Amino acid sequence: MKARLLAAALAVATVATTAACGGGSNGSGSSGGSSSKTLTYWASNQGTSLQNDKDVLGPELAKFEKQTGIHVDLQVIGWPDLLNKILAATTSGQGPDVLNIGNTWAASLQATGAFMPYDDAALKAVGGQDKFVQTAFATGGAPGKTPTSVPLYGLVYGLYYNKQMFADAGLQPPTTWQEVVDAAKKLTNPAKNVWGMAMEGGSYTESVHFAFIFGRQNGGQPFDDSGKATFTTPGMVAGVKQYVDLMGANKVVNPSSVQYKNGPEAPGDFAKGKAAMLMSQNNADNTLQADGMTPDKYGVVAIPAPSPLPPGGKDVASFVAGINVSIFKNTKNKDGALQLVKFLTSPDEQAILDKPFTALPVVKGGTVNFTEDKNEADAFAQILATKAEPLPLIPAESAFETNVGNAVNGLLAQAATGKAVSDADIKAALQEAQDKMAAAGS
Amino acid sequence: MTVTTTHAPAGKAARAARPARRRRSPSWQRATPYLLVLPAILLELLIHIVPMLVGIWMSFVRLTQFFIANWAEAPYAGFGNYSVALDFSGPIGRGLLHSFTVTCVYTVIVVGFSWLFGMSAALVLQQTFRGRGFLRTLFLVPYSLPIYAGVITWSFLLQRDNGLLNHLLVENLHLLDKPPFWLIGNNAFVSTAVVALWRSWPFAFLMIMAGMQSIPDEVYQAAAVDGAGVWQQARHITLGMLRPVNTVLVLMLFLWTFNDFNTPFVLFGATPPHSADLISIHIFGNSFVNWNFGLGSAMSVLLLLFLLVVTGAYLGLTSWRNRRA
Question: Structure pTM?
């Protein structure tokens, strides 16, 4: 009898936790700026480690405190956790005052209504719209809406190649996608665990970025003009295939990299000479140098497109990537928050921060200063100016990232375990992602 | 009451005080237990009941990214979230059904083997021999480690390139030519089940061992006198007298395993491979990864109903068997 009572009590308690768990009230309590003289700032991880970010930002924020008397409580948050923490803060209303976001989330997060819109007065307070590079400023939210974020650090994708390995094999930096594949095949030697291309195959963000870039090269478009998802068009399928085939049909990627998802692994392979090429955003410089690869050892070119371009295709080598900065709507210190944004996006601070964070300038008049190598600086500046398109600035963007990114990860896993990935497999996976988004109403 | 009315007029102050105290004490006595459990009830409400009710409410609204900053504005969805979750021909319902099936198989395997291992170890350690205390402690280590530390260590062991397991299988024992993946594809399911088993069997062991302590030696002695062998003793006495313990144990293991979130989350992150898509993390994915808390809550409520039905049926069945026995 006692046992039954105990069992019943335990059962009820355990079952009850279930429902509470799904509730999503995962309020990761953070001290919202309660005192008007203190701001809480969530910085994203831009340096080589969370500690590195603290070391870089610490002295600058001390400078800010000296200028304004406002103390900034800095919290650096790793990429795998950032979006979840923002969502939890949004649902609970307990958030920081100022925070960094991945600029591709801007429209999705704008739709939640959790961020303060930068209206004319607010824009004026941070130094005016005109001070920003306009392609970067355009990522601040959905077109036609008051932006809820302004650019902070600029990033684009480039193709890094190991100069020595290319020279040894008598290869030139590739200018077409076919040349990329040929060079990668030539440089792959599984017996020595050396591969043509490094890949962050477990990262859904990387996967969706390449689905977009290669999809555009092949004439695809993730959403049509009315905002309807069109993931399964031939162009998108061909784009995903172009990426997955690196692992699958072409076998130029270490299958183990399908488990890489934290950021430094793929650049690490490249830096250690285990991979001859790396497709990455320009902040990879950080990790490469931390892993002992000096800038003279690698070159950067734009990620090439197939030649000739498939019907409707565009020579897109990147999307306009980067970090934006937002203010939480329920901050108790709006003026202080605006001052902090103004400070962080001031030309002086930009010049200081772009260097350790290897970022491209987002304010006018800035120069690429994170590298001494003029070729590299020019290559990245050129990609941003002529070969970068923004990811779709629509509320469903974040759902696109997670659903399509995870679908592509699944295909990479299939390729890594030795099962051929057919066009039909890709189409089915993309269809599944599209149906899921439609059924979930996002 | 009657006592006070009859005595009070006649009494002096000192005498009046006593009945007054007596008058207060019965009501205090009645209130004391309630007062004692009041903090617990309030906390229970705060920690379990209220979030649960909020979860149920959330399942009836369209709580998507457009409303998470202001829940009150989320439109009423009726049973919309439920019909999406239960539409097994649609992608979301299909995903949920798959996840449910995977979880059922996973639970049967983990609970079954946990019990079997726990029982075997407890039976062996019932005998006195040298090193018994050491083995007891050793067996309990997985249970006493922090979950995260234990599972993350497993994830290192199971890495393809530099994991200990592949090192052993491929380089030391030469059993395989190519290192397999343990954390993607179908192997991921096996890995998750093994890790969960590693974590939960010591609990079964602990409970069964405690239960065995309460079986008096005389019973075994009597059985031995009657000619029962070791196996007969184990089957009829140990198992028989452990029935109440086993009833509770299996139920708890079932609920814990079915709801297991930590193991897959630490091994795989928010999106596990298809083969190891356990229900808790599947629901988490639908809430957090897709920003649809209404749908996630509807799935949670469905899970809650399922667990309540199973638990109720199980308790009903076991008590019915107990009554018959």
Answer: 0.82
